[in-house]
Amino acid sequence: MKIVVIGSVAAGTSVAAKARRNDETAEIVVYEEAEDISYSVCGMPYFLGGEVERLDALIPRDVEWFKKRFEIDIHINHHVKAIHPLAKEIKVYNKETGKGSRETYDKLVLATGSYSLTPPPFSLATYENVFHVKSMDNTKAIDKYMKGHDIKHVTIVGSGFIGLEMAEQLTRKGLTVSIVELADQIFPKIDADMAYHLKKELKDNGVALYIGDKVDTIEGNGKVVSIGTQKGATLETDLVILAVGVKPNTVLALDADIELGETGAIKVDKHMKTSAEDVYAVGDVAESFHRVTNQPSYHPLGSTANKMGRIVGDHLTGGPLEFKGTLGTGIFRLFDLTVAYTGLSEKEAAKAGFDPVVIHNIKPAHAKYVGGQEITIKGVADRESGRFLGAQIVGPEGVDKRIDVFATAITFGATAEDLFHLDLAYAPPFSTTKDPVMYTGMVLENARENLPVMTPEELVAFQEKVVPLQIVDVRSPKQYGKNHVKDAVNIPMPDLRKGVADLDRSVKTVVYCNKGVTSNTAQNLLLNIGFLDVNVLSGGNTNYQNYIDSKK
After folding, report:
1. Which of 34, 42, 141, 175 is catalytic?
2. Tens of pLDDT along 466-477?
3. Can you tell me the distance from the alpha carbon of 258 to that of 252, in angstroms, rounded to the nearest whole number?
4. Are 93 and 79 in contact (CB under 8 A)?
5. How far from the centroid of its chain's Cα atoms is residue 208's Cα?
6. What CATH number matches the domain at 453-550, 3.40.50.620, 3.40.250.10, 2.60.120.10, 2.40.40.10?
7. Is the full-model pTM beyond 0.90?
8. 513 flagged as catalytic
9. What's the pLDDT tens digit per position in 126-171?
10. Longest Cα–Cα distance in the chain
11. Which CATH class is domain 2-38+53-113+247-316?
């Protein structure tokens, strides 16, 4: 059997390696258009920022390594111009010799990846200082340009993974960084109330933000010297990084009439097989599906690409592996924050047909008396079934640990209540007696059953509609005097039993403390003495003030 793979970054090399591990008799050939293979796209910002000292650290394996270890023939600088599924052959152009050839296959795997988008009015061909950060060639070109020019100001267009990682790294390198983001928030993948923390962190580190704006004009002849935004800002710049997203590289598939999915990537089955006989697709070019909704999704991540590649390599050589979907789990560092998410967001859950119950959980990652710092968790569950649907976390420590637990829980169909019953490791340097994961499950389950929670967004909406509402701040008068929720009355928790005489027990009531713990006690008290509708303000006054600030 002859297996031909087109593409050799994360997915393509995983196909080849797994196939060889399973079968010593197969002929395995890989074609790569570029010069480098099996490199870390995710590590590129850290090399450009100087955190990674050597570029070759991002290329752990080369052609010779694969040949020696796996007896795999990898042909670099070879551009596959066409595939012909009926004839089971591909048309290859050797960029070094200038000669073309036709090669046959028994099984063909498309690992052609994705390509970065170039938004107007930019053009890579016109401006020498405009770059993507997608390939090793991009990284080499940026590094060379930065070393050969006096770079002081950098403009980043887009605030996804790459955009924010580049902002962090270039700021730490001593450059002045600006971000222009078309959406009305930083990092549109997560909910706006959580993205507020990213916005604050960027501003605290001196990054200039132009949100809900876009580049409208460019000044410079062959080199961008300044840009003008649609809202009228003018930004002098020495370097422009385009980070507005990627699209699957489906050119070969389209030319061969291979079916695409609704996300625009190649449609595949559980074995990553396409609509063409004996043709498979893996990595950024392939469509995925979401484990919660079972609907098509597109998550171009290196971890997913590696998994897809291993599955195809196994399947082609008689193995049992099948692709079981993704949760879209992601994580990145932004200065002193870690940002992570998995599963469905609040809006995604509602769109998928769930009735989402949402809570904000602000807790230390481990015991405060040994230096624990607070993390903010936004958890989502289905109100009817209790199924845990998703989480977003922002904080300085312990975020990676919790997001992986949440992702595991969702994968195995856990309910909110199941989270509370997890037997998680505890010692003061590592966690709290009720780990933030457990506490998230506990509060979600309470909110789902009979102890409702109201988000700051919902509270403000009620106030704007002039709905009858009474808001009770159960903190100390000193805390109340510093800042409080609009129209709230202050009845400190120790005085609450005696201080409810002036409250209407039939009116919707919202109680809050600083972050949520004391207000839960207040909620129980009021319900027990006859109040009909008592809600805890999700995340307390801290989360409310963050929400108000995010709207400024």
Report:
1. 42
2. 889 999 999 999
3. 9
4. yes
5. 22
6. 3.40.250.10
7. yes
8. no
9. 899 999 999 999 999 999 999 999 999 999 999 999 999 999 999 9
10. 90
11. alpha beta
